Each structure stands twice: as C-alpha cells, then as structure tokens.
Amino acid sequence: MWISTTGLGHKLAMEPLIYHNSFTAASAFLDPILEASNFAFCTGTVPNFVCCIGTAVQRLLFDSEGKCVVGVEYQTLTAKGTFLQTAHVKIGGEVLLASGAIHTPQLLLVSGIGPAAELKKHGIPVLIDLPGVGQNLQDHPSVIYSAEASEAAQGNGLTSAIHPGGDNSKIKSMVKLRWRTLGTGPLTSVYVDHGAFYNTKQFHEQNKTQDHEHTLADLQVRFAPIKVPTPSGNDTLRTLRTIRSFKDGFTFQLIAIRPHCRGAVTLKSASMSDKPCIRL
Fold first, then answer.
1. Across the strands, what pairs with 223?
2. Radius of gyration of the chain measured on its C-alpha atoms
3. Residue 26 phi/psi, 5° resolution?
4. What is the phi/psi pair of residue 124, to 5°?
5. Ranked by mean pLDDT, which of 37-41, 192-196, 213-217 comes out on top?
6. Element at 84 (helix H, strand E)
7. How many CB atoms lie within 10 A of CB 15?
8. What is the dihedral angle through the alpha carbons of 207, 213, 215, 220, rounded to the nearest 10 degrees?
9. In 10 A of CB 178, how many CB atoms?
10. Which end of the chain is more exposed for a tag (fewer CB within 10 A), N or C?
11. pLDDT surpassing 50 at residue 166
C-alpha cells in the first residue's frame, strides 16, 4: 500500500498469503504442474514435466551446424556423487534459457556464444561472435546497516516474539498454534514488510532539467525488525538456523535504484563451476 500516488514515501508491502502461507511464483505455477506430473507417473502415464533438484546446467548443446540449440549438458549432485548427463529436445521442442542476469551470460559464453576475444582467451570454440553477451550489466548496489536493540528494548522485537530465549531452532508453541488456527501473529510476517522510496536532493538537482525525471525516486529503504548476521539474504537464513542465542535488533537496507554505472559479466574459466567475474 503506497502513501503517495507518485511512488514516493513510506510503504507497507502487500505480500500474497494463501491459507496463512506465502504464495510465491513457485506456489502459483510450479506446484500445480508438479502435482499433475506426479499423478501421471502414479497412474502409469508419462509425465510432461520433471523437476530436477541439485542440478546445474554446464553448457548448451548445438546441432551439427552450430546454429540451433538441441539440448543441454547438466551436472547432478546425488548421495553417490556427481554425474554429468545430457538432455536432448524432441523435434519441434525448444530450450528456454532463464538463468538470471549473471548465469545466463555465463552459460552462453561457456557454450561458445559471445565476444570472440573473450571466448578464445579461455579456449572455447567460437560458435557465434556476439559482442553484447555479458555486457551492459545494470544492478542496484545496496548497503546494510544492522544493529542490536538496546537492553531496554530487548524482549519487544520479532526475534523474542517467535523464538524462546532467542533460540532460532525453536518456535514458541502459542505462536505456532495461533498461526495454524487463526492465521495471525508474528509467523505471518515476511520480516521485510516496511520500506520507503525517496527522491534525494542530489538526484533532484542533477535531473531537474528533464521532464518528470527529477520527481522520481532514486533511493529505496527497506526495514526489518530483526538483526541480520550477514548481508546476504540466503546466507542469513542459513546462519540463523544455527544460532541458539540471538538478541532483538533491527536492519535498514539502502538501495540505489537508478545507478548510472554499466558493468559486465565475463569468464574466470571455461567451466560453469567457477564463478564468473562481475564488474559493476
């Protein structure tokens, strides 16, 4: 819900909840297909969708002319070890590449599509010399400020409300019961549900000669009523599960949403196992 019709000001994030649970893109689109495929498998018919976990694509496979993608080579991690496999599309099929802003250009590069000089530097055969691959990277740099609450405020935060004694491996029984029966309480929080968009003075002065540009937001602020142990959201979730004594706190994240810099994604090696070089 926005306070201002211009998009500026404080906001309360509207998070989709179904039956007290977060409703994500996976819940909406992936789960129904998986259920239908599992039903098909159980009834003896061939499922039209298979979801592979612990799997990473290593490169794209091309036809004999090197013009059309006909499959992928992928690596699967299992309890017995790592296995390299291939998957080929049927006639009329297609490969959809959607690996995000970092891994999409990396996968194209290791497969032979990109600037010829970059590919040759890593001994990759050039299938298509396409200079734009990995270039013009635009991202929103951010800074996180996180701190413990004062001693006087301890016991009033979200951490204390959910976890007994700050033990993140446990959830208070009444909190869990309230969520299961009424769908209310602190467990319905998505943590980062407050924020704001601001138009800084510097951005306003730099763009006031351009129509409407100077009235737009250039700084996003996100607030979480907890202290985070790491700047990374995923790392924070993993770390919190192992902490047995965690105090109440708060976190602000400042995000530059109109960056002027343009960077690039280049290769460190010809292997997808090596993280690419990212320049912002």
1. 194, 252
2. 24
3. -65, -40
4. -95, 125
5. 192-196
6. strand 81-88
7. 13
8. -90
9. 17
10. N
11. yes
